[in-house]
């Protein structure tokens, strides 16, 4: 989750949130840790989210060091700045792990092309329709390209009939995003998946 911290109209910085047992703690995009924190005093939050009060920076760092943890400035624009005692290395590891998991869950939609001809035989038609179904079930769009040769251009309706037949057979997993359109010596139809791809 993101938000913006501001100390006036000229200083707007994005902040992020780290869950705690007592709610969220704002974490600035560029964190200062331990000796990088210069301002004193600071408001200190314990690892379990409790307020430890306003302390001199030296005392706050002593408390963190006694627990084998880090002092992290989580709200630099507050007055006094807010610092949290935490395992910064663990926090960064968890942040990177969550980012990796989020990338894994993302599905980049691709357009897969399936080419056919007006006089396609039943075996080839079934084979290519199965391919199109698999692409759609994987969450990709399918571009059906009907290619015409020679005199076939005189009867584009035959190619359209084949495309309509494909879309009818795949209507349980797709919807027509682009109806058949002539593009030069080809006729193109685009099908989009109706179901979410498997995780």
Outline the secondary-structure elements.
Blueprint lengths: L1 E5 L5 E9 L2 E6 L3 E2 L8 E4 L5 E5 L1 H10 L3 E6 L6 E5 L1 H18 L5 E6 L5 H16 L3 E7 L8 H14 L4 E10 L2 E8 L6
Parallel strand pairs: 5-8, 9-10
Antiparallel strand pairs: 1-2, 2-3, 4-7, 5-6, 7-8, 10-12, 11-12
Describe the 3D structure:
By secondary structure, the protein is of the alpha+beta class. It folds into two domains: 2-104, Translation initiation factor 3 (IF-3), N-terminal domain (Ubiquitin-like (UB roll)), CATH 3.10.20; 111-193, Translation initiation factor 3 (IF-3), C-terminal domain (Translation Initiation Factor IF3). The protein has four helices and twelve strands; from the N terminus they run E-E-E-E-E-E-H-E-E-H-E-H-E-H-E-E. A five-stranded mixed β-sheet has the order 4-7-8-5-6. A four-stranded mixed β-sheet has the order 9-10-12-11, covered by helices on one side. A three-stranded antiparallel β-sheet has the order 1-2-3, with no helix packed on it. A hairpin with a 5-residue loop joins strand 1 (2-6) and strand 2. The radius of gyration is 30 Å and the shape is rod-shaped.
Output the keywords.
single chain; 199 residues; alpha+beta; Ubiquitin-like (UB roll); Translation Initiation Factor IF3; 2 domains; four-stranded mixed sheet; 12 strands; rod-shaped
